[in-house]
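Provenance and format

Records in this collection were gathered into a single text stream. Each protein contributes a sequence line and a token line. The two records reproduced below are adjacent in the stream.
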Amino acid sequence: MLLLRCCAALGLLVVGLFLADKRGLFFDLASLAFILGPVLAAFASVQFKKEGFLVTRGLLLQVSIVGILIGFVGMIQRVSDATSIGMATGVALLVVLYASIVVGVCHLFASNNEQQINFSPLPNRVLAVATWVLVTGFAMHGVAGIYAFVDASALAIFSALSLGICLPPQNVENYKAALAKYLPVSGLIGSLVGVIAVLFNASDPKAIGPAIAIALLVPIYCNFASVGLKLLYPTIVEQDSSPPASYLGFMLLFLFFVVYVLLLGA
């Protein structure tokens, strides 16, 4: 009965999206693949058992954050064409829409709080991580090329945040869970550093590019690493008792709309 209700709800949602825009702009195969790839990886990490719903629910919002940030990099690459910026931003937001729908479905099927995630064989978990890396790599290559997502300053800040999370003694024995839990929130530090640098250097076009790179890439690195750890060690999802922290990533929307306005005015 639950499956029937879920299918009916999804069917009505698809009809609603189609009626909202009959051109089919709410349906993007690349954005859908970016969400479904990690969903498949989440189920593979637990041998395709029902616990996959719990793993998916625990990491998919972070996946959407990575997707929207990759989309913003594409927006920056097309900043010279004002007409394409809106389309690039819309496609980036589709990833969040799809992730929200899938997370809702996972809430329905993972409503039994007695479910526990058990370790699956290492090959399954490695396959899950490899799937996540490939999906993200293809997305980056398709948007702007892999090298557009490599920046020494962003890597240095990411490394500093990672080391800082592991320094407290209480986190030494469980550093993997600590990294998976706190890296997404820590990534906001990099975003703030970049946005502040953009605001201070608004009159210097040459300084804006590197500042935007830091603002975008640090949270990409942080959420990418966090999702990878959750796929490699699915039990981390149960240990993360602060799901609202994931929603802090959507503060990035506000930050980058500020950047968006600055770019349009440049």
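Adjacent record:
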Amino acid sequence: VEEPHRRTGIATSLLKATASVASERNYKLITVQTFIENADANAFYPAIGAKLDRTNVYYFNDTAIKAL
């Protein structure tokens, strides 16, 4: 989400929609990669349930997908 539109719920809505499709298809993992300098994204994903896999790659396991 571009800077002027952050903190408006867009990213959360997009992830909820993605999680819904992932659940319907029985996917067990969603991965998201961020730029290392994107502090907002690097704070956002863990705050909504993602776990840091390696530097700037976050994943949502099936429990986190269902929670979204």
